[in-house]
Amino acid sequence: MPGSFSKDFETNKQYIDELFQVKKSFDLIYRVVTIGGRTSCFYFIDGFCKDEVMEKIIEFLYKITPDQMPETAHDFLKDRLPYGEIDLVSDEANLIQRMLSGVPILIIDGYDKFLAMDFRTYPARGVDEPEKDKVMRGSKDGFVETVVYNTALIRRRIRSPQLVMEMNTVGRSSRTDVVLCYMSDRVEQKMLQDIKNRLKKIDIDALTMNQESLAECLYQHKWYNPFPKFKFTERPDTTAASILEGSIVILVDTSPSAMILPTSVFDIIEDADDYYFPPVTGTYLRLSRIAINILAVLLTPTFLLLFMHPEWIPECLSFIEITDPINIPIFMQFLILEFAIDGLRLASLNTPSMFSTPLSVVAGIVLGDYTVSSGWFNSEIMLYMAFVAVANYTQVSFELGYALKFMRLILICLTAAFGVYGYIGGILLTLVCIVCNKTISGKSYIYPILPFNYKQFMRRFCRVSLPKSER
Q1: pTM of the model
Q2: What is the DSSP string of 75-111?
Q3: How many angstroms separate the CA atoms of 330 and 173, rounded?
Q4: Alpha helices for 256-397 (secondary structure H)
Q5: Is the CB of residue 282 less than 8 Å from the CB of residue 269?
Q6: Residues 414 and 425 sit within 8 Å (Cβ to Cβ)
Q7: pLDDT of residue 60 exceeding 50
Q8: What does DSSP assign to residue 368?
């Protein structure tokens, strides 16, 4: 139906029935009523409608007499509807977006515009603390799969008129709600406009994997560089802090996390616990996390190199030499255990909670005792890989954890193949992958080291006291 809709009720009803295939879909419900002597019809999706609100509105509309009916839909909205979230729908694109996102639609005979009354509700779980992104002290709420709840959690923390939340729609079939959150007086305007343009240019059928699909559409980076371009968090306090620092946050409906950009490697390493403790403690936690991640990359390749050249082992570290028989090459033991750790992680994700403890016991016995006593692995190798496995959980970013894992695997293979030259080459390759990386805004991935900024450098590595507000 081009242009505006018809004023004839039957024509409009037939058009909507055919457009949405109402007769075929059991969850698309319509209710024909009489309002002010005119035939009218409510369209809504079962499960998205607040029944008690709809009951009150219909009860009020039944009381309207024919002589009280205004001439236009706009006057009806203004004078006869007591509900707050109401808008006029005058074109097909707006009708499809409203209807399929759960907004009830009212058509009235004699009006060429439809009334969209937003008293929908989405199925949602409680805003409990995220399982992965926990803190020892601080807020215990987290994002959920309903984008309106997530924006409310941010609004609760930032009560400023400068906080802007722009709604966008992405996906021809999914029509997914994507919200752009930023502080209008703090965000970099050039970067903001670039993100808006990228969102508008996205031509995709559906965001099947919500935020991951959107991230790949926003920035199609080189696949061989595994270091992440975005920071994901399920914590509203971390999100609000990033917005106040001038970052842009993207929320995607059906995703319980926020996507923060632009993001450097130091942004990803930061954790909420750094700020929920005094500066000295926060600095210790941050430096410990950085040191543990560096050790997680270098520990096993360094041990492999020293095993290949035992004459390089200092006298004080002679105890690290392997004295037991070696049945499988050391580098093969490292690679097998790397894959075994991932296998255990995947198994724990897919194991019902009631069986998780037995799985942990069996895995501990089999990998920790039998594999050593049977000769498959040496106890020293198990010790170093246990440290690596624990180190992977010292920071919350899965993406960064796997990027470091890939670098460690490459470093082990190069060291095993080329000795000390492969070891040095692997370290240089890791540094190149980090240094040559760029954020989505095109800036350095290791700022403030490159370009160097002393003040920001100290703030990245040391948790300083909060600055006084400037008036």
Answers
A1: 0.85
A2: HHHHHH---SSEEEE-SHHHHHHHHHTT--EEEETT-
A3: 52
A4: 265-269, 279-308, 330-349, 353-365, 371-373, 379-391
A5: no
A6: yes
A7: yes
A8: I
